[in-house]
Model the fold of this input.
Amino acid sequence: MPAPVEPPTGVSYCTMIEQLREISQRPAPWSVSTVKELWTRPHLAQQMLKYHLSQDTDHSSRKIAEIDRIVAWLDSQLAFSGKRVVDLGCGPGLYSRRMAKFGGLVTGVDFSPNSLQYARSRDMHNMEYIEADYLEDDLPGGFDVAVMIYYDFCAMAPDKRQLLLGRIHSLLAPGGKLAIDLYGPGSFEAVDDHIEIEEQLMFGFFAEGDYVGIHRTDVYEDDWLSLDRFFIVEEDQTWQIFNWAQYYSPESAAAELAEAGFMVNAMTGGLDGEPLEDDSKTIGVIAERI
Done:
């Protein structure tokens, strides 16, 4: 007979039962946020940078060939040369540097010092990086273009999204443009409820030492919303990550932007100019401040 499983050191049996009971329940939409945890826990910050730079996975960022294609198409629509561009959530600067190579005067904004350290170690021509939270901290204004790429917008609660759009509106000069990508109907159709439990979940992504990870996905059909929830059990602690994802139709995307004072100029199946289809997994939007 297998030996009984003992709870981690420092975690009582009653505490573990309560935590497992809690993770078995669906939380109310947007009731918990851990957005910064992925970027402020030292091990996770290193892993996020590693995944951003990896050419073997699209979990945290797109592969370089696709990034090149996106920036080239954006330049064809926005003409970066000589324009002031702010890249919100720039991470390690994969898009920022390429926009600068097209002649944009680019300011990258991110709250991850680990990612910004990498970004600043690369070519800084036409570049500036600011360590800041774009929801809270003061930023310079008068930009001609704002970009927010790889679904960062979809990870925020509705009130945070409206706050951010209001801040972007104030950062842009009159007639300034916003380029953003959103999860589309095809992505929502592809997500399902499921749960998995594994030792070293995602091959050691969450912690350096031994751990067990529980990954639960909940789909909120009426809200076009999903939650990927990660419950991590280490020897001396337990903790969670909540990754929310808001999905959009073309109509809901246009309505949310209009409420914040933006008029849609173009809507595509991605920021590489792919045609928009009923089942597009991505909605790419270029909108104008009005």
Notes: The chain has a mean pLDDT of 92.
